[in-house]
Amino acid sequence: MSKNSKKMVEAITDMEKDFAQWYTDIVKKAELIDYATVKGCMIIRPYGYAIWENIQKDLDRRFKETGHENVYMPMFIPESLLKKEKDHVEGFAPEVAWITHFGEDKLSERLCVRPTSETLFCEHYSKIVQSYNDLPKLYNQWCSVVRCEKTTRPFLRTTEFLWQEGHTVHATAEEAEEETIRMLNLYAKHCEEVLAIPVIKGQKTDKEKFAGAKATYTIESLMHDGKALQTGTSHNFGDNFAKAFNIQYTDKNGKLQYVSETSWGMTTRLIGAVIMVHGDNNGLVLPPKIAPIQLVIVPIAQHKAGVLEEADELNKRLKSIVRTKLDKTDKMPGWKFAEYEMKGVPLRLEIGPKDIENNQCILVRRDTLEKVTVSLDKTEEIIIDLLDKIQRDMLQRARKNRDEHTYAVKTMKEFEEKIEKTPGFIKAMWCGEKECEDKIKDETAATSRCIPFEQETISNTCVCCGKKAKYMLYWGKAY
Amino acid sequence: MSKNSKKMVEAITDMEKDFAQWYTDIVKKAELIDYATVKGCMIIRPYGYAIWENIQKDLDRRFKETGHENVYMPMFIPESLLKKEKDHVEGFAPEVAWITHFGEDKLSERLCVRPTSETLFCEHYSKIVQSYNDLPKLYNQWCSVVRCEKTTRPFLRTTEFLWQEGHTVHATAEEAEEETIRMLNLYAKHCEEVLAIPVIKGQKTDKEKFAGAKATYTIESLMHDGKALQTGTSHNFGDNFAKAFNIQYTDKNGKLQYVSETSWGMTTRLIGAVIMVHGDNNGLVLPPKIAPIQLVIVPIAQHKAGVLEEADELNKRLKSIVRTKLDKTDKMPGWKFAEYEMKGVPLRLEIGPKDIENNQCILVRRDTLEKVTVSLDKTEEIIIDLLDKIQRDMLQRARKNRDEHTYAVKTMKEFEEKIEKTPGFIKAMWCGEKECEDKIKDETAATSRCIPFEQETISNTCVCCGKKAKYMLYWGKAY
């Protein structure tokens, strides 16, 4: 924190002392959310929502560039429709919200608020897909879904949350598998290029896969407290749902075939990931690409002649190249520094009478608090360079931190020691049996995160039972 | 319809014979929607949703330019919260969807799915507004809402629909009134400039105003069948909700004051308006500004050497200036003509071997079916001019049609004759009493649409009771 601002703001909890409280302090003090009366729901405030809009814009562009189209399905699912695929209803029924009445009228069949929309998409596809000419269908939907949660935390786990859900149908199993992996890669690129969050790509074990899926792929990232976060998932359903919903098409030879299906989703939990990967004890640190304000202009001694005029002039010039805000309120500069540091604005520009005299201004990076004095003639190019550099540096720092907290272990003793003393990702060999997965979870509270695409051989035997190893797995305590 | 396509497509119902069936045919055949299993809900298909995205983009830009910020409130409202403002709960309680259980657990208090979010915004404002420095708050939300409807029609009246709802709080009654009118004007501009739909701006009578509002302003437009459609509304709540929810701020003199509040909304019903104002017996006619495809390229004799290459080349050139689609499927050109006419694509570009020889192509307007032959060297500028002209002409034609179906009447006999024989807007004088409003509705099935801002004096007496007239009103049978 800038020296002169430290004393002026109510401090947030130290992240090293109480990470959960630090997180809660940030979401409130950076004005990302407010709590709602309805238990487990949150209000996303303008600054939080603007971050989500920037995430949406980037994802939506990527979806459209890969041929996907947006649609909107109803938010209600009749009970009988939810029940059509057995594993699916078992996975979701315990946590759905049930509608019983419209006004005073009791419904003949209960409706639930969508916890996810596989069943609605399947029913629609069963009507509109007839021939191989109709395939593939590559649909996506932006909406909110409801899954009742007992313990909630803003962005990470709430009863209602915003997300996108892609649902596609294909002529062949191969095409569905390609799509599933394509979307996982798209998610990984978004995380690394836009959110500056490095991810591990891999497959979920059978125990951890999605209700009704043949295979679930995931991207996993590591938070600052050493806990893992599932950042996005992509599911290959094979023909499970196609058979339950009778989605068939006539192939080129006139033969009836079941379609193969995928779904994939990312949620507002991404904002939670950004907070926990990049934030520090001064507050939020936002990657420039999603920052609602990329540069804040703070006039110094703004009552002096010419300062506000010059600040206005600069703001006009700069706002055509970056998202700027000029703060002309009569708060002390130190207050303003602290406020925009809390909000994670990537760059601060200070300009006062002396700077104007010297045809210069001062730029301060949020991520490193480094200061540079720059000529007013070169401000534009330096700002663009700096924002680029901040974006790159943030990814590099996050990757370094992740790698430093990733441990290859050969024994359960090492496993337990690491997860207890220096939490992070644990890489360990696994025999492939659910018994070992359960046992490790019982003993360490760590869950299997994924079977990474990039396999390594740490040893030849399962870390738990000592039998022949099949895969290297990532483990971690998770949100 | 183009001569050579007429025979190839299954005709839609003639709009002059059965307007309701014509409408239903279009929404299905232009692939805007599909019906969902849940009664009264609809699936918005990719082509329909892309129209909504273009409408959203324009409105959202206008909202942001006028200082509004987007937020997201929960979709659930506890019963006790809904009941806080008396008129409001009476207006909405009969049509809300009630949640009683989360999974197996019975809730201690029922929740409804938001029919609108005044109560949620008010509760939030009561927490975040303390001083005059916090005002105004200009928030907007994009979401779906639920109001159970017995009789539904796609886009016009459905149990769930998509919309935006603006909710603002202000220090003074004057500022709230200014905001209410500002947003009504913004809506009117969007309708005229983007949807090419002329509107009448005015105030709702007390009988027709929103549940809990002090004043409701409306824009009303006229459909091709002579029925009126309420296209957008803007409400001034005064301090009704502020008092019910205790939203107070400290003014500059340190005195506690209630805020003044507004709300305003537009919905997917706008798509219904576009269909019913511009559509014809060949299908949809879309204003270029919201058309997902502004220009479709149809190659003629595409099996011949060079045709597809030239079409590809043209498509590459044109897609940087307009939203294009090149249809290379092996359907007959006549089929393609009919399909894109049904979908309302504003311009069709035909290119075949002879055209290539003569360095030309053919452009066909959807709205007039006029054809022009243009040099390939000038295609870009002519397309831009034509799209502009189509946009303007569509508004002019709609205005002409509206004016030709707007009748000033002095007696109930004239009123009844007009509304029966040549439906449209009826302008008539009114004494201001609810009794006359009720009586006219009973006798003619027409409802008061608005007290227009632009008043005229048709006579000095109320068309119904003959007493002294207070206002000139617009009347109509309405959707």
TrEMBL record, chains A, B:
Matches recorded under InterPro entries: aa-tRNA-synt_IIb, aa-tRNA-synth_II, aa-tRNA-synth_II/BPL/LPL, Anticodon-bd, Anticodon-bd_dom_sf, Pro-tRNA-ligase_IIa, Pro-tRNA-ligase_IIa_arc-type, Pro-tRNA_ligase_II_C
EC number: 6.1.1.15
CDD domains, per database record: ProRS_anticodon_zinc, ProRS_core_arch_euk
Enzymatic reactions: tRNA(Pro) + L-proline + ATP = L-prolyl-tRNA(Pro) + AMP + diphosphate
UniProt keyword annotation of Acetylation present: no
Any single GO BP term: prolyl-tRNA aminoacylation
Residue ranges of domain Aminoacyl-transfer RNA synthetases class-II family profile in the record: 45-287
Pfam families to which the protein is assigned, alphabetical: HGTP_anticodon (PF03129), ProRS-C_1 (PF09180), tRNA-synt_2b (PF00587)
Key words of the record: Aminoacyl-tRNA synthetase, ATP-binding, Cytoplasm, Ligase, Nucleotide-binding, Protein biosynthesis
Intracellular or extracellular location(s): Cytoplasm
Recorded superkingdom: Bacteria
Similarity field: Belongs to the class-II aminoacyl-tRNA synthetase family. ProS type 3 subfamily.
Record remark on domains: Consists of three domains: the N-terminal catalytic domain, the anticodon-binding domain and the C-terminal extension.
Role: Catalyzes the attachment of proline to tRNA(Pro) in a two-step reaction: proline is first activated by ATP to form Pro-AMP and then transferred to the acceptor end of tRNA(Pro).
PANTHER family: BIFUNCTIONAL GLUTAMATE_PROLINE--TRNA LIGASE (PTHR43382:SF2), PROLYL-TRNA SYNTHETASE (PTHR43382)
Subunit record text: Homodimer.
Protein's name in the database: Proline--tRNA ligase
Organism: Clostridium oryzae
